[in-house]
Amino acid sequence: MQLRTRFAAVFVFSCLVGPWSATGLAENETTRKDEIAKIFAEAVAKASQPRGPELDRARGLIGFEVKHATYEKGPHWGRWRWPEFTGDRWGMYQVEVTYVSVITRMGMQFSIGDHKAKGYLPQTGSMEAEKTVVLDRIYLPDTKTYAVSALTGDDSNGDTFRLLRIDLRPAPEGIGVTQDFDGGITLPAAKATTFSRRMRFEPKPEKNCLGFWTEAGDWAEWLFSVHEGGKFTVELHHGCGAGNGGSEVEVWINDKKHTFTVADTGGFQSWKAVQLGVVELSEGDHRVVITPVSKAKSAVLDVQKVVLIPQT
Questions:
Q1: Residue range 173-181: average pLDDT?
Q2: Left, alpha or beta for 163 (phi > 0: left; psi -120 to 50: alpha)?
Q3: What is the mean pLDDT of the chain?
Q4: Which tens digits make up the pLDDT trace of 57-73?
Q5: Are residues 196 and 218 in contact, defined by beta-carbon separation less than 8 angstroms?
Q6: Is residue 179 a part of any domain in this protein?
Q7: Least crowded by CB within 10 Å, which of 8, 13, 255, 303?
Q8: Per the domain annotation, does 275 fall within a domain?
């Protein structure tokens, strides 16, 4: 039974993902997925012991539990369907799958609307040992209502494999921030992770910012590396619409807090650079967090980027 299940899992997933090499996925696809998985595993490890404020890392998480899904067993696959879902924000998410399995490798495809995430789920060791893996990343382009489903190998709801839940966790649009050759560090909006219900990255060229910051509980985070330490001036490039000033915001660099009151800049995309102070950074990994303390009017601010300018 287990051998047949393994074969069926491989068969259905070959139909889903296309060309195969001797080791499974086409080599370039395997490499891409491995690189992405490694990057996000490292990011999660860094964020699990953050220096600075302890904030709600589950904010903005979208969860699909199996108890809310229906399961249909096909000839070579199992299909899971959840009730339709309407999101509050668009943006990038990493797809995390929690399951138990004694099958060597189970192919899986998760779909939300026309957007798909594909990958493999390794065995967990026993049917009592839960495991959570990052399947892939997925981008939701708008806040419309989506159909939600998943495909797994056959007999994927029984004695050899059980799906427990699928979570969509906010992820940055871009991957990785490193120090520039001139010693400066630029943290653009596109490379922030937005732990939010409403706030999101707005990709239009005239915006290119973190916007829709209408809930004070939403927050943003950047993880970055420094190869040449020293003292840096912290500069925030932001905008605030007419009549919307007065919100209080904290900007954390590791465990150092800089607080400022947002001033009206004449428009949410009328950018103004405000210098918040000086911070000393050593070689290694660091963290920047922006979190509002209060919201004075309809929205807190828009953020274009954070720049750390080396002092000479």
A1: 85
A2: beta
A3: 85
A4: 999 999 999 999 999 98
A5: yes
A6: no
A7: 255
A8: yes
Cα→Cα distances 131→2, 10, 89, 128, 158, Å: 19, 20, 28, 10, 16
> CATH number of the domain that 274 lies in?
2.60.120.260
Write the pLDDT tens digit of every residue in 98-137.
999 999 999 999 999 999 999 999 999 999 999 999 999 9
Are 170 and 61 within 8 A, CB to CB? Answer: yes
Residue 260 banded pLDDT, cuts 50, 70, 90: very high
Q: Residue 283: phi, psi to the nearest 5?
A: -65, 135
d(Cα 305, Cα 191) in Å, to the nearest integer? Answer: 9
Full-model pTM: 0.79
List of residues 6+ apart from 158 with CB closer than 8 A: none
Domain count of the chain? 2
Distance in angstroms (rounded) separating the CA atoms of residues 190 and 138 = 15
pLDDT per residue as tens digits for the range 23-33: 233 344 444 55
From CA 102, how far away is CA 39, in angstroms rounded?
Answer: 26
Contact call for residues 134 and 169 (beta carbons, < 8 A): no
**Structural domain boundaries, residue 268:** 185-310
User: Where does a domain end: 170, 205, 240?
Assistant: 170
CA distance 278 to 280: 7
Q: What number is the average pLDDT over the span 74-86?
A: 92
Same domain, 262 and 199: yes
Question: Closest by alpha carbon to 73, among 153, 165, 163?
Answer: 153
Q: What is the DSSP string of 282-311?
A: -SEEEEEEEEES---SS---EEEEEEEEEP
CA distances from 199 to 217, 246, 258, 302 (A): 10, 18, 21, 9
